[in-house]
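An instance noted here:
***
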Amino acid sequence: MFPSEDDFTTSLMAIVDDVARVAREVGSAQIAELRLLAAAGRLAEAQTAQRNARVQVHDMALRSIAGEVGGVMRVTDRTVQRRIGEARTLIEGLPATVKAWEQGRIVRGHAITIVETGTSLPAEMWAEFEQLAISRCERDTPNRVRGQLEILALRMHPRSFAERHEEAAAGRCVRIVPGQNGMSDVVATVPTVIAEGIHDRLTQQARAIIDTRDERIAVRGGAGVAFGEAAATRTGDEEGNDDDSAAIIATDQRSIDQVRADVFADLLLAGTPALDDTRDTTAGPLGAIRARVQVLIPAATLTGEDDGPCDLTGRSPIDPATARTLAGGSGMWERLFHDPTTGVTVSTDSYRVPSGMRRFLQARDQHCRFPGCRVAAIRCEVDHTHDHALGGRTELSNLAHLCQRHHSMKQFTAWRVRQLKGGVLEWTSPLGRTYREDVPTPAVAFTPAAPPPPPPGATEPAPF
């Protein structure tokens, strides 16, 4: 017997309330554990300080205490010693973050993000950084806010991001991490924009293979199997007939991750797609598919007046030189202003979203606008907040990017959304809980220019 709608709602509400209560209790316990671990670290320091001990002696005392604590936590002393260091960094170095966590303004994921992004700065700048970071964490989820905090830390750092990126790029490499059952991980450490482009191109090619399976079975016209299709069945220059190739495609049940890995291997081993039968009417030849990345570039960085980091939307910061190169090579580059006098389309009578409006929305939204989602806007669908079929207009105040997953949730579940002023989305869950999804932090900020220094020998004006 199925529960009634009221029983279902009551049961779900009880579960959600219990999850919220347990989350608060877990948070309190995690903070208490951090304080105890930090106290253990201070105890080791105090013990050796009394003896005017050398560094090695201090480390031995810390190891001993870590072993004692690890015995009751059932983890290794190495793990405890590492966690003691992390606890002291957070408890002693970032007290405002701990306080905000205790007050429920942020959660553990926020605290970890603040530590991982802020500790790259000199210690004397941590207090200033965490105050700014906390205010941003209060408005967004940890995965969403990470990119903002990375850029904030990079811009606050006394050394320019361009200089630090150049040093880091010198460490690019490819390495193999042996795995189990005859598998290994091929790990390439490359600039972020290159990594994003590699993954995007592989995704597009894999999606083309998967989406055109039925069509390619029906229109087989050439010998051989499709690029990326069951490559392990081929040896040398051997080619199968059309029936065999169609049978291979028809029985191909690989996931997109598996196809991505096979395409990756084929491209590296063969250089270019040797066999490609995807149709022009669908995705186009695989070899012609090129990577796409979405980058937000402050105007001052674009003109060379600033050397700060740029935002690879949905991922992490990239260096300004790469961003300028991408901007210069893009055929779609244009300035966007949210001002009717500039000619930016703000509304249209048609259902289709004009390209200029779409690009403005990409710059505004940056990513999927469901709470917590970071799928880049270029991989999302432009959704009419108020359904166009029910009278919703195609205008900026009624449009927002949603990824396929959350677009479907809006259509086929009891989740509801309305758009407030300024592009803010207010989501309402099936239980009636509301979540505000603010417009992402603008990629461009205007600050007053510093007054020019007085010429040599000039006297300062007397104060009033």
Observations:
- The chain is about 45% helix and 10% strand.
- The CA atoms of residues 48 and 226 lie 68 Å apart.
- The first strand starts at residue 173 and ends at 178.
- The first helix runs from residue 5 to 49.
